[in-house]
Amino acid sequence: MSTLGRIGLWVTLFFAAVALVCLIVLLRQARHDVQRELDAAQAVVAQLRVLALRDAAALQPDLTEGLRHVRAHWLNASDAIPQTPEPDWLTAWLYGGSMSGETLALADGRRLWVSVEPRDEVDEVRDSLVQLLALFALALVVSLLAIRWAVRRGLRVLAELLGALEQVSRGRLEVRLAGHGQPETRLLADHFNRMAGALQQARADNSELTQALLALQERERTHLAQALHDDLGQYVAGIRAQACLANALSGQPQAQRNALIGLERNCGLLQEGFRALTRELYPVMLEHLSLDAAIRQLGEQWQATQGIDCRMRLSRHLPELPLASRAHLYRLLQEALTNVARHARAGRVFIRLQPGAGHLRLWVRDDGRGAAGPVRAGIGLRSMIERARCLGGELKVLSRPGRGWAIRLDIPMLEASR
């Protein structure tokens, strides 16, 4: 059953219940009124009976005409006694007394048949019941029509919303709802349109992020290949050539010694190249150093490479973090320093890592140019946000023009103590 049908059913049941209550109240009151009226009619019949016995001459036809709720028939000698009809259910319920008449024999030989007649009173009650039911029926029809008119407008908006949601589920995020006259429907359309716009923007951002990640992957592979081919490959080729030269100069001690010195130097350069490449791929020092020591080494290496003053304030009583969490925190700081070197135009960077009330806080602040408004998150900032999420923390980025950038990461102490 449709929503409109269920509403109509409930309204009809409500009207039926109210009508039933009103009918019961009306019938109870009508029964009391009918009993009172017909008791008066019984008293009139009793008076006629007394008059017929005491003063038959005073009992004339004009006296019995127009009596309320009393049937009176003057009978001739050949007239049959009138038949009393069987009462219907309403008459039987309203008036429980006997409706059978009686024949009064007067002293002058006349006969008068009298009985109580409740039909007029019952017809009045029946008319009242019919009017009440007609009024309720009219009110019900008007209510259903009004509900149908009001609900169909809402159902039309709901149908449009369901259609729009179906299109969104199929990936058509450009769909929008038109505003309607009612404030509620306009508010619903505005919320849906904002949701669809946010989903569309999120899909565009995800697509852009995916393309950026693929491009970054290709750049990393290209860099790795160039490092292996240009640097490490050349060192390996030089080592091989110097080894062959040292073997060929077996009879010349000085020349052989010079070749071995060059061989040792190339081996050292090859080792340094492998270490640098390994540090770029994975921070091995996290497995051997404490967190503050690893971060201090990162800051010193970054300062030596970028030529930017890096000042650090690291607590010596940092909570124990699992290796995965230390790696996320290390990479987040590494990305923050990379962003400073690329975009901030700063001369100094401040790093602070200290435990606080229920959290571990990381501050990274520079004295660069900053930004005047909100900055669109690039791949670097998004990776930092995702790493903060992996740490169970919250990353905030603050910037003011001419006052530099600042990032703040709060890691819950529960996460930090795992």
Shape: rod-shaped
Question: In whole angstroms, how far apart are the ends?
Answer: 55 Å
Would you tell me the structural class of the helices and strands? alpha+beta
Assembly category = single chain
Number of helices: 10
The overall strand count is: 8
- Roughly how much helix do the residues carry, as a percent range? 55-70%
Task: State Rg.
Answer: 52 Å
Q: Main beta sheet: strand number and arrangement?
A: 5 strands, mixed
The stretches of 5 or more residues where confidence is low (pLDDT under 50) are: none
Strand content: 5-15%
Give the SSE string: HHEHEEHHHHEHEEHEEH
What is the residue-averaged pLDDT? 78
How many individual domains?
A: 3
What brief labels describe this structure?
alpha+beta, 10 helices, 8 strands, five-stranded mixed β-sheet, Heat Shock Protein 90, three-stranded antiparallel β-sheet, 418 residues
What does the secondary structure layout of this molecule look like, with pairings?
Layout: H1 3-54, H2 61-64, E1 70-75, H3 89-94, E2 102-105, E3 111-116, H4 119-169, H5 183-248, H6 253-281, H7 291-306, E4 309-314, H8 323-344, E5 348-355, E6 359-366, H9 379-390, E7 394-400, E8 404-412, H10 413-416
Helix pairs in contact: 1-4, 4-5, 5-6, 7-8, 8-9
Descriptive notes:
Helix 1 (3-54) runs antiparallel to helix 4, helix 7 runs parallel beside helix 8 (323-344) and helix 8 runs antiparallel to helix 9 (379-390). The strands form 2 sheets. The chain has a 5-stranded mixed sheet. Strands 1-3-2 form a 3-stranded antiparallel sheet, with helices on one face. Helix content is 63%, strand content 13%. With 418 residues, the protein is α+β, with helices and mostly antiparallel strands. It has helices spanning 3-54, 61-64, 89-94, 119-169, 183-248, 253-281, 291-306, 323-344, 379-390, 413-416; strands at residues 70-75, 102-105, 111-116, 309-314, 348-355, 359-366, 394-400, 404-412. It is built from 10 helices and 8 strands. It has 3 domains: 3-143, no CATH class; 178-281; 286-416, 2-Layer Sandwich (Heat Shock Protein 90), CATH 3.30.565.
